[in-house]
Amino acid sequence: WVKVYDSANTTYAVDSSPHSGSSAQSIAITSGTQNGIRSNINVSLVAGKWYEQSIWFKSDAGQATPLTGYTIGGSSVWTYSLPAGSAWHRHSFIFRAETTGNGNLYIYTSGISGSQTWYVDDVTLTQIGCVAEYLPESVSPTSWLDTSGNQLNGSVSGATAINHQANVPVQ
């Protein structure tokens, strides 16, 4: 993680009490300025595809912590009110990518009253929906084309494509 929206009142560290694994990211805030982090993992999204982003959070605050996140130039935004207390909470967000491209995950908070530390761990981004999609018009006598965008194309042998006999064009 890389610090963003940094202020002199924020400390970023690797914490040894993770949700799983050996460490988590901690963000200690001593005032209500905007503070956040950016993943150092560059993710690739494809326009029109659906994704699920899952993140585990916890906070030592006595009040709820407002969090906001986005990916790829702000095209996908979520908000989450992290409950007060020290338990880990999973936030999951499903979104459809508006643009194709690479970018990073950003998470930030603002308007914090008082000092607190919040933690981030086990971040995943998974494409959901069709793994492969074979429409009748994408099948020819010798091949099929995956129209889901995942490029799971294949070849046909020992079979007859019904749509080919009906002169349905392959796209």
Describe this structure in words.
It is built from one helix and 14 strands; from the N terminus they run ββββββββββββββα. Helices cover 2% and strands 46% of the residues. The protein has a five-stranded antiparallel β-sheet with strand order 1-4-11-7-8, with no helix packed on it. A five-stranded antiparallel β-sheet has the order 2-3-12-6-9, with no helix packed on it. The protein is elongated and about 70 Å long. Strand 2 (10-15) and strand 3 form a beta hairpin. The longest helix is centred in the last third of the chain and has 4 residues, at 162-165. It has one helix at 162-165; strands at residues 2-4, 10-15, 24-29, 35-38, 43-45, 50-59, 65-71, 76-82, 89-96, 101-103, 105-109, 116-128, 143-144, 154-155. By secondary structure, the chain is mostly beta strands.
* Poorly predicted regions: none
Task: Write down the overall mean pLDDT.
Answer: 76
Q: In angstroms, what separates the terminal alpha carbons?
A: 42 Å
Question: Beta fraction of the residues?
Answer: over 45%
Helix content: under 10%
> Any idea what the radius of gyration is?
22 Å
How many H/I helical runs? Answer: 1
Largest sheet: 5 strands, antiparallel
Helix/strand structural class: mainly beta
Strands of the largest sheet, in order across it? 1-4-11-7-8
Listing every helix as H and every strand as E from the N terminus to the C terminus, the arrangement reads: EEEEEEEEEEEEEEH
How many runs of DSSP E, i.e. beta strands? 14
Shape: elongated
